[in-house]
Amino acid sequence: MSALDADVLVVGGGPSGVAAAIELRRQGRRVILLDREPALGGATRHCAHSPFGMLEFGRVYFGAAYGRKLTREAEKAGVDIRTGHSVVELCEDGSVLVTTGPGVEKLTAERILVTTGAREKPRSARLLSGDRPIGVVTTGTLQSYLAFHGLLPFRRPLIVGSELVSLSAVLTCLSHGARPVAMIEPRAHALARAPLAWFPSLMGIPFHRGAEIVDILGRTRVEAVTIRRGGKLKTLDCDGVLLTGQFTPESALFLQSALGVDPGSAGPAVDQQGRSLDPRMFAAGNVLRAVETGGWAFREGRAIGRAIAEDFGREPEDGVPVPVTFDAPIKLVVPNILRRTASAPAFRQFQLRVLRRVRGRLSLELDGREVWQARGLWMPERRILVPIPPDAPQAQNVHFRFREED
Amino acid sequence: MPRQPQTGETYDVAIIGAGVVGCAVARRFSLAGAKVILIEKGADILSGASKANSAILHTGFDAPPGSLELELVRAGRQEYLEIRDSLNLALVTTGAYVCAWNAQEAEKLAGIERQARDNGTTDVVLRSGGEARAAMPSLSDRLVAALEVPGEHIIDPWSAPLAYLTQAVALGARFLRGAELIKGTFDGIWRLETTAGEILADAVVNTAGLYGDVVDTRLGFTPGFRIKPRKGQFVVLDKAAARHVPRIILPVPTEVTKGIVVCPTAFGNVLVGPTAEEQEDRVRATVETQTLEALVARAAEIVPALAGMPVTALYAGLRPASEEKGYRVFVRPDQRAITLGGIRSTGLSSALGLAQHALKLHADFAEPFTPPAQVPDIATPNLAECRERDWQRPDHGEIVCHCELVTRREIEATFSSPVPPGDFGGLRRRTRAGMGRCQGFYCNARLAEMTKGKLATPLAIDTEGGR
Ligand SMILES: Cc1cc2nc3c(=O)[nH]c(=O)nc-3n(C[C@H](O)[C@H](O)[C@H](O)COP(=O)(O)OP(=O)(O)OC[C@H]3O[C@@H](n4cnc5c(N)ncnc54)[C@H](O)[C@@H]3O)c2cc1C
Ligand SMILES: Cc1cc2nc3c(=O)[nH]c(=O)nc-3n(C[C@H](O)[C@H](O)[C@H](O)COP(=O)(O)OP(=O)(O)OC[C@H]3O[C@@H](n4cnc5c(N)ncnc54)[C@H](O)[C@@H]3O)c2cc1C
């Protein structure tokens, strides 16, 4: 084999990628950290009002300051940081194809870790009806307008969605002189916990549950939106639509490679070490499943960084993985696969999500034997954690069963 | 050097409407040596029907036999193949399968094959379902039979008209945008009243697409046709879908429409559509959730591997259909006017043919021009995946749009080109910026910054006092 550029290439410099890179350096590995943006920090860079870093650094940082803290820590640890590097392809030979201002290059390493994060679903992927004028954006885009350029895409948006990030959307609007005309959530219940029950109304923004967009109007810029609520149509004048939440992994590199993505999580399938179907490739952070907090992504990156470090010196594990299967209405399970291995796992718990608000009994079966169960009301877009039994990787059949109860 | 406009200057030909047809006509007359002006009411070229189509360069295998449409599709396709190198235009030589999914449809294939041969597309081959699936295993096993049409290709539907106009401009043509024709009067010469002032011209060519009949009325004619827009909605699937769809998959057509097509795009995606929906409105081309869901489902019926494939983009286009199926071409020699109307569903393929035709019609009432001594080649920026993209070349600056890998150099270059973008749609069509799977999550803010003061409708609102 020709000389390697590094022991590990980390693709994506958000909290998970940086945490992994630092951990790998601590374990004595040569690490190149690639990010296509001009600075590290990932999605935290534009979250100007969200506090980050309490758990990992013992104090809070906002937006770009958190990214700078990550950069300092990575530099201190001796990580070779390369921003402005867009990874275009995960190649079959285990290298990555990169394009940068000066041109194209190929980088090789023994292991590759992909930490490319998650993003909100755009209007198109939601198949929303109407014209296609300017002014229909996501929270991340709105925040980028403000944080990086001091611009605003609208002044009177309609906000769609009620996941946690929608609070961020409201705050971002209000603190920059944009006045949302209303907030709508297609489901009968707000998705985030308590604050959403009262927060928008407190701010004087009408909040409609069970309401959906049926038409977006506007030739050049958004002029109005028609919503349907309880069978009634109503047209709201507004100059933008702010689509919040519905996060999806930014897993394009996997989607376009032979590895593909898991149909449930839309991210790469990984085992309990964070290792993908290709034993040289790992993944961590929000690319695995959308969406978790910055602190979660950081800890997950660190754990998987450690697992990769331990993986050195061994032949890449490529035992046939056992898929973790599940019943509807479970949406996803991460890790998605399990491999028989002696190494300590990076994941201590399975992470699950359900597709809709549902009451019932959730259980885990190993080779048909029930090893864990819980009953309750399960909410969409909320994390569900189930301990991974130590003998789970030995099972031939790992299945999450769900029985609905009223 | 492009000619500077002068008041009172009389153009040899004024072309009304910068769709693909108008752009091709501007090029053809400029090549012939005419002094040309192209008038467009929108902020950019391709503001009408031409911004949204399936991007198939048709052979005419299924066109009405003996029709003008057939003749001009064939001529247009032929010329495209001849000039594409000199204009640096892409051609994805996919070929097509006309797929029969049941016995009745299969019975029709023989007739379609005969028609194709009569229409001069002689390289078609009837295939059994098994043969077609051997060549393209991703097709559903419900396939009964197929007609292979090797000559159906995919092109870049935006770069082609841009290249035609750019060449015209290089030959001295003037492109006037934001100029709506309000009224024309003819008294030996044409006086065209537009929202951007009066234009004098010796002859007019009406290429107003969805407004062809309206513009004829404004020119003082009793229009010989009426436009009845027919909407087509599309879904664009993620680039990961492309490996399952190496060819154009056509249905057996009905009387009304060519039907739902699943085909590759020059940009590496897969297109599903279009629908055929009659409407009165000439402006609104909305997409509708239910229809889009049906398209997504249909794609997975045809190619099962497309089930669950993420949707990248949605769009809808309006076909300038009229009350008759064929092209609606009218010449009024006494008023020195030509109307190229009702170019419903094959205009991308036939545009160059229509332009040749218009020049011939013009020669029947006007003196020939003196062709220019030299014809410049045009280095149209390449957006197609089958050729080298800018990101693969050195010193592109940086990637601005990550999903489509659009470089800063490409975006800067398009704004300093002879026909720069006039609106955001125009920028997207010239560079692909913001057209990828994230639809601007990562780059829209950056584009707002980079395009400040350059687009008719800015991405960012005026924030004076807003912060
Ligand atoms: C609008 C919004 C609001 C949020 N609010 C909060 C909040 O209030 N509190 C909270 O805890 N969390 C919040 N989050 C989530 C938090 O930002 C994420 O959990 C965290 O950033 C995830 O880290 P990550 O490392 O997995 O991915 P990211 O932070 O998304 O980082 C991924 C990195 O990968 C890079 N990348 C992607 N593809 C490539 C490629 N092909 N080549 C090179 N580089 C690539 C990107 O440039 C990016 O820097 C919010 C997220 C968003 C979008
Ligand atoms: C859904 C769909 C799929 C298609 N698929 C294909 C395909 O695969 N292959 C193919 O070959 N063809 C295809 N077509 C057909 C093709 O797109 C059309 O035939 C073609 O775009 C018609 O172009 P045009 O120049 O005649 O009209 P337009 O593109 O409508 O151009 C007319 C222009 O005139 C301007 N205008 C109007 N009124 C005025 C005025 N008063 N003053 C100044 N300017 C004015 C408009 O703004 C517009 O820009 C498809 C069409 C649709 C809708």
Automatic annotation (TrEMBL), chain A:
Keywords: Oxidoreductase. This is NAD(P)/FAD-dependent oxidoreductase. The keyword Oxidoreductase applies. SUPFAM superfamilies: FAD/NAD(P)-binding domain. It comes from the Bacteria. Signal peptide: none annotated. Residues 7-297 form the FAD/NAD(P)-binding domain. The keyword Oxidoreductase applies.
